[in-house]
Amino acid sequence: MNRRVVMVGAAVALGALLVLAFWLRWQYAQTISLYVDEFTTLWAARRTLELGAPLMPSGVLYTRGLLATYVTALAGALAGLDYITGRVPSILFGLATIAAIFAAGRREWNTRVGWLAALGLALLPEAIVWSGRARFYAQLQFFALLALWAAFWAMEEGRGARGELGGARGEGRVRKTARRQLVFAGLFLLALFSQEETVLLYPPIVIAMIVWHGWRYLLRRDVWPAHLLILAGMALRFAVEILGQPGFFETIQAERPYVGLILDVAAAWPAYASLLVAPERLPWTLAGLLAVTVALIALGRGGWRIAGIDRFHQATLFFAWIFGFVLLFILTLVGGQWRETRYLFLVQTGWLLVGAAGMTWLVDAVFKRTAWRWAATAAIAALLLWLGWAPANAVLARQVEGYDRTFEYVTAQRQPGDVVMSPQPPACAFVLGEPCDYYAVQRVYEEFVIERDGVLVDRWSGAALLNDAAALAEVIQSAPRVWLVTDAFRLATRYDGDFQRTVVEQFDPAFTERGVTALLAQGWRTPPAYAVASDFAAPLPFGRLALTGWQAGTVAPGADLPVELTWQATAPIDTQLNTSLRLIAPNGTTVAHQDGPPARGILPTNLFFDAPLPDLKTLALPAELAPGDYALQVVVYAVEGGAVEAGPLEIGTVAVTAADR
């Protein structure tokens, strides 16, 4: 096949892939709410625009994705900092990575490897996500890929540049190797200051250089200066972390350690298995294993001299080794609370390249004519497109928490004197334009606070920590209006029962969007006076809910009767359950009832756990009630479909006397 035709066809195919990739990422950026960490990046970028550095109101430096913060700030300076402009740099880095993986595959293997790997990256769901978010992962992946490629490129030159060669020819080789090593070092440092996880790449790169050329390679005068530069960059990055974020690293390592001798692959594997063995990903993994197997066979036949085997197989072993090392490190040494798929993102390009290498090797083993090889590769590409299209589109329908829209509502409704609190203070600060009044959270906050003037404040926004139900009550009593902006999951898991009870009793839902609610308290509501109470020695079972007790006010015909039921979950609940409270006369007729969600719907029942939560009911009593004992009956049922979970069951009685009439 004519080389010019191949090059033009590959360029056209790459262009089409970039258009497709841009469309997917642009759709994500426009339609999906901001992931909570994006607000931190945007807030840091705004502070950078204002101060020249991401210095937070608390006095600390935001060091996560330091280079990405400046890139985002630059985008804001050019076009105004908002949700879309904050996400544009990630889109551009995502597209650049597709072009880079094509170029790396084309140079180190062949054009078909580059094209298949680019197709895989264009459709990779997590690449769409991180290329559509205002975070540092797309930038990290771009520089990490270039750094790995540059390391392999530098090793290639090292095979002929021993440094001891005399004359101009030897010195020229030394200078060329030194330049390539410095390019590698520069790209590595760009990745490192994009995100510190880059340090995981350095040990396998150094090991690879030793395997390729022996340990003396690192001591050569055209090699060691670049590595000294990298080590100095690591030291600088660590110093920035320690000095800019006092106590942060130590607190995280104490509360939820980054690394340790975990060695629990069985527990870690499920967190990452879907990246490798999901149906649409399995062809890549199997093809990658094939490529590695073939390369190892070639290595064995070549006397285990890795520099003596074909470049195709060298590249396969290098990128597979880097990916395997990082995967093994994550599976065995990373702390359990950090087991997230995003931490493998920086080396997924290696997985795609090695998988594409296996596919093209198999094609070449079956077909000898170039035209047939291209036709078979096109068929594989069509299959990969078919397998990957549905997962890629599913990302565009997977909405995240709507803190952006809910805080926009609060911004529009906010009045002078209003107090705003949230477990997401960076979101509050960025959308409102100023920090929240309080960082309201009771659990898992230690790493995010720092002491200033004797008060614990949020590291990123400077909002004072509010982690006590009594303090919450004091704020509600002293302010005209109090906003609490939170999602249901955090409300269920980051607060204790007394705090949750205060929220249920004092706040009303004002706005809910994509799982995030703006709760509003307008002055302190004095709880009802309860005249009778009953606590069960053993909770009364109502299916997956259990009633731990109840209390009721004074019965007055023609008035409202306040009743509080207290529930806890006894089993996982996968649907919304409502409760129906009924007042049953001695003759068996229902004289009053009220249906509604426990916890006033502020917490959905699928997020009920073992902590008791109140269910506030009000029964409108008829004006004419004959004296006697009236039974309180409860029914628990599913909102969707109305299936009865349990009941009606009698939980107690209230009395109506002649005096009450």
Write the layout of secondary structure elements.
Elements: H1 3-31, H2 36-51, H3 66-79, H4 83-108, H5 111-123, H6 125-130, H7 137-158, H8 167-194, H9 202-213, H10 224-244, H11 248-255, H12 265-277, H13 282-301, H14 311-333, H15 348-366, H16 370-396, H17 403-413, E1 419-422, H18 425-432, E2 438-440, E3 449-452, E4 455-458, E5 464-466, H19 469-478, E6 482-487, H20 488-493, H21 497-506, E7 508-513, E8 516-521, E9 532-542, E10 545-552, E11 560-569, E12 577-584, E13 590-596, E14 613-620, E15 628-638, E16 644-656
Parallel strand pairs: 1-2, 1-6, 2-5
Antiparallel strand pairs: 3-4, 6-8, 7-8, 9-10, 10-11, 11-14, 12-13, 12-15, 15-16
Biggest sheet statistics: 6 strands, mixed
Strand content: 15-25%
Number of helical segments?
21
Structural class: alpha+beta
| Rg, nearest Å | 31 Å
Structure write-up:
- This protein is α+β, with helices and mostly antiparallel strands.
- The protein has five domains: 1-135, no CATH class; 138-246; 257-366, no CATH class; 403-521; 532-656, Immunoglobulin-like (Sandwich), CATH 2.60.40.1930.
- The chain is built from 21 helices and 16 strands.
- The chain has helices at 3-31, 36-51, 66-79, 83-108, 111-123, 125-130, 137-158, 167-194, 202-213, 224-244, 248-255, 265-277, 282-301, 311-333, 348-366, 370-396, 403-413, 425-432, 469-478, 488-493, 497-506, and strands at residues 419-422, 438-440, 449-452, 455-458, 464-466, 482-487, 508-513, 516-521, 532-542, 545-552, 560-569, 577-584, 590-596, 613-620, 628-638, 644-656.
- Strands 5-2-1-6-8-7 form a six-stranded mixed beta sheet, with helices on both faces. The protein has a four-stranded antiparallel beta sheet with strand order 9-10-11-14.
- Strand 7 and strand 8 form a beta hairpin.
- The longest helix is centred in the first third of the chain and has 29 residues, at 3-31.
